[in-house]
Specification:
heterodimer, B: mainly alpha
Amino acid sequence: MTEPSISPRQEETLTHLVLRRFFKHRLAAIALVVLGLMVLAALAASLGRYSPTDQNPANQFEPPNLQHWFGTDELGRDVFTRILYGGRISLEVGLLSTLLTIIGGVLVGAASGYYRGWLDNVLMRITDAFLTFPTIFVLIILGSMLRDQPVPWLKNSVLIVIVIIAGLSWMWPARLVRSLFLALRERDFVDASRALGTSDVVIIFRHILPNCIGPIIVSGTLQMAAAIITESGLSYLGFGVQPPTASWGSILSTAQTHVFVAPWLAVFPGMMIFITVMAINYIGDGLRDAFDPYVVYAGTKK
Amino acid sequence: MTRYIIRRILQAIPILLILSALLFFMVRAAPGGPLAAAERNPNVTQEQIALLKKKLGLDKPLPVQYLRWMGGIFQGDLGQSIKFNRPVSEMIAERIPNTLLLVGVAFLITLLVALPVGILSARRPYSIFDYIATTLTFIGQSLPVYWLGLALILVFYVALNNPVTGAPLFPSGGMYSVGKEGNLPNLIWHLVLPVTALSAEWTAWYSRFLRSSMLDVMHEDYVRTARAKGLTERVVYYKHALRNAILPLVTLIALDLPSLFAGALFVETIFSWPGMGRLFWDAARGRDYPVLMGVVMINSVLIIAANIVADLLYGMLDPRVKYD
């Protein structure tokens, strides 16, 4: 085995090192470009020729062609445009629910691991209780109840989907962060800060937390992939984002009814979910390698 | 050991109580409620609604209703379905064997594929086999089960036909063809697509997990010791390393079991498989809340039981683990 490629340049920052190592992972770099294009396309959706909601019954079920790249659906709407708009929703749900999940998980995990004792006990029992919730079943019940609400902003809101996904996922990062904090709180630099009279909040967020950033980001990518699959699944079953708002899952859901007449309707939204999730998984893989100083690359192996 | 099991079961009770209370009050707090459809129907009089309420116990205060429901659960009574006017426990009991069959077969197939793939990938890391396996596992992890199910129907039911009879290669749903109920080959024929859809993702996760677990273990001291003793690589690999590498997989699988049932929910919906998941989906669409809550409670009990079993298995496989 050759020497691990730890940088000889002393001034290199961690960010720099991680980025350099990340781009060595070729598939991860490609995945990042793919995901970037996906986000750009979703953002640029309104520049297209078609509206996602304009119906044109004369053009019903047109197979993919030059005018309509992904064909048209049962109401004559352009599927390509709808998928771009759906991408906004799906990516938004993935990103925001992941952020919420990580924030919740870090708060619970840090408090638990740093203070230990009764607080740790209480928080971990709550975490255990949430882990026994059959997530998708509870999500469906919540979704079906919220559909019945008389309050309009509750009814059709993407926000609700984001909050309930995060509300049933924060336990995983919480456990991870707790175990990291349990180890890190015993280190000398924590004792030193405490001896200097640094407040707990500063020790937790400024001194310990930055040391956990690698594993947290990696678990964040896993969470984001899972959130996108969950949102699409929920919408696919009819309990997530409600029509006429398009998300990849809700497009797939309407496609299912017409799958024998117009199979392309089912192919494209699923393809988008698949490509996005795969890209995120590869990025996660690349980040894991980039943050781990002991990893040996295929190319540098003996 | 027995004391440990009893303690774990006792610990599970408060969790189930919290879950049930949360579910119950959340569902009942929602406006509309189970009789919304009847209340909107102009042909149903106020008296009839009051009668219905009385019959279903909906006229009592919420906490009383909760206590009655909870009390019923301890006697195996999960309440009455609003839509079908049948005991929920009976409806679920009818469906559970079908779900267990689907999940059980999928689980078996998953292990039969994932274990050899994981072991062989780790045996020769970065070989061609490993590259192909790794790529396939990435694909498997990223395929949403509902889309895979649809794609399987498109390919094996719509596109491909039996060259002799012209019939579809595999059925698009159900458990048996009409008139062939109870016929085993017919059941297996109906199982192929749902099981494939359900096991793809898990096969990917477990083979990948086992590969990295194997690679970790191969760096351990006792592997070096075994090699130094002059044991053949085969014995070192399959006897010393594999046993230790499989340990964390057991815990992972038990913790993952709930997701297998969640996957079954999608598969049952797509393939009209008459299991618990399909029952749940139908109940959610018809807002049949007693059925919904019953299925969730049963699933939570299954999850807790699976966790306890995993801990016990772990102790049996690893003599270092002691129960206190």
